[in-house]
Design a protein that fits this description.
Blueprint (H helix, E strand, L loop, with lengths): L1 H31 L5 E8 L10 E4 L2 E3 L2 E8 L2 E10 L4 E7 L12 E4 L8 E5 L2 H6 L6 E7 L3 E8 L5 E12 L11
Antiparallel strand pairs: 1-2, 1-11, 2-4, 3-4, 4-5, 5-6, 6-7, 8-9, 9-10, 10-11
């Protein structure tokens, strides 16, 4: 009886592990379907003067094995790229900020890694240690991305404050590809 129970527990843990990987893979696969396409977005929460009245475009520009790069253009500003890196059961989100000459901004490479497998349509990224060193006030940052067949949202909440930012992109209406992000090397 003990052997049967042990086998059942092992099989159950394998099922959970497979489900965890499945969520990550489904999320990743949905993003990859849009590689090479661009979409217009709207701020639905937390618009600041930097974003008001400007054309917002995301471009899923690169889908390499284990890495997806998504530049986010705000008007003529092409400094921002979301970089997603996939491991077995987790995804890391980093923010690559560049100057017009391609050099890194002093505030760059911040973000976090999902602490669990998330869902097929949502991944959550709490601030990591690198982020806290770079932006001490961001220790309570939590980013999350949602994606399905119709939309993509990028979200930021700073826990303990009123700070909330959401930009939503309509994935049913591709737009013309924008210029390359600053610092992009083909």
């Amino acid at each position: 009886m003990k052997k049967i129970l042990t086998i059942v527990l092992i099989l159950a843990s394998l099922h959970v592990s497979a489900q965890e990987q499945n969520n990550v893979l489904k999320f990743w696969s949905t993003l990859q379907k849009h590689c090479g396409k661009a979409y217009e977005g709207v701020i639905t929460e937390g618009a600041t003067d930097d974003f008001k009245g400007k054309l917002l475009v995301m471009h899923i520009i690169s889908c390499k094995q284990g890495e997806i790069k998504i530049p986010f253009h705000v008007g003529e500003n092409r400094s921002r790229t979301w970089v997603l890196t996939k491991k077995e059961k987790n995804i890391t989100l980093k923010h690559d900020h560049r100057h017009e000459d391609g050099s890194e901004d002093k505030v760059t490479q911040y973000g976090g890694t999902s602490t669990n497998s998330g869902s097929a349509n949502m991944q959550i990224f709490p601030a990591d240690e690198e982020t806290i060193k770079t932006i001490p006030a961001a220790f309570g940052n939590v980013w999350w991305i949602t994606v399905d067949e119709n939309s993509f949202t990028y979200n930021l909440r700073r826990i303990g404050t009123d700070r909330l930012f959401t930009v939503k992109f309509d994935l049913t209406k591709p737009v013309d590809l924008p210029p390359s992000p600053w610092g992009w090397k083909n």
